């Protein structure tokens, strides 16, 4: 089995990559995930690429084992998933943001981010990541550079002020639907 090939007894998490072509098929797939949880093969299940709040709400309502996390691309075209993130907070679902740098060059170049980066001796990417963490998101990053990985971890040591947060929040609000 795949677990044996991985050398583990269970998976910490299993992710449904995206809703399927119909809600019925999506719920059917979710039921299979729930069976894996019931059998002790998986601890937590979640969903990715679900930018439609009614679809997420239906999956959540139908689920015996609720989604523990939602991984979505975080960018202006979806209004930064404001309503979806609110739903996640209200229901204890961890919102995991990806594509946070590539999709947001306008934010990384913005005055509030640049000012905070200069004042705190940090990169714009670090300031953006810190802001996202302060907003309650889990930021998913990917790099093959050890230096970038260390920068990403150092985000936790940045002394981010309320003024920094509010200025960036106002900048993001310009792009939120």
TrEMBL record:
GO terms for molecular function: oxidoreductase activity. It comes from Cystoisospora suis. CDD domains: AKR_AKR1-5-like. Gene3D superfamilies: NADP-dependent oxidoreductase domain. Pfam families: Aldo_ket_red. This is Aldo keto reductase family oxidoreductase. It comes from the Eukaryota. Residues 2-169 form the NADP-dependent oxidoreductase domain.
